[in-house]
Write a structure and sequence with these properties.
mainly alpha; 0% strand
């Protein structure tokens, strides 16, 4: 799953750069982050509820169905640039930067300059620790609640959901500000 998700942020931010004018990108990124946490919160709650009647493999399969449906819909609806989409009007197209007709020009990546920038290490470290904390929290916290505090599975899923809803609020607030 990690390999399948590795392209999520580069692809998402590339789409947001092309589809949103610069003054609306912060909100778009906030909505993206909020949506991811909202899905995780809802998933944690649903998993807790469903574990009383199903095994994890069945739940995993059921959770994949909306993703496959959304993927098929997105494949038919989405275009690389708003000028290629029939649902955008002239005013919307004018807000966005023009896209070149051909592929991006091939340029050499300045690896030396890139790896000597402190910002690269700060962003990489932030993403590493954010992802590590998220995975640890989503996998370990429900087990801790069940084994140490005798919390039923259904309640553990609900308690796992609450901080994720806080991330939704924070992401939206960050995107708006």
């Amino acid at each position: 799953m990690g390999i399948a998700q590795a392209g999520l942020f580069p692809a998402s931010t590339s789409c947001l750069r092309v589809w949103f004018p610069i003054e609306r990108r912060a909100l778009a990124m906030g909505l993206l982050a909020a949506s991811m946490s909202l899905g995780a919160a809802f998933g944690a709650f649903l998993t807790g509820e469903m574990l009383s009647t199903m095994n994890w493999r069945t739940i995993f399969m059921l959770f994949s169905i909306p993703g496959v449906v959304l993927c098929l819909w997105f494949y038919t609806w989405f275009r690389d640039h708003p000028t290629q989409h029939s649902g955008t009007n002239d005013a919307e197209r004018e807000l966005l930067q023009p896209i070149s007709a051909g592929p991006l020009p091939k340029t050499r990546t300045p690896w030396g300059r890139l790896f000597t920038r402190p910002g690269l290490y700060w962003v990489s470290g932030q993403q590493f620790f954010r992802a590590m904390a998220n995975v640890l929290y989503l996998t370990w916290f429900p087990t801790l609640l069940q084994k140490v505090y005798d919390v039923p599975k259904e309640s553990a899923g609900m308690y796992t959901m609450y901080p994720l809803l806080g991330v939704v609020i924070g992401s939206l607030a960050g995107g708006i500000c």
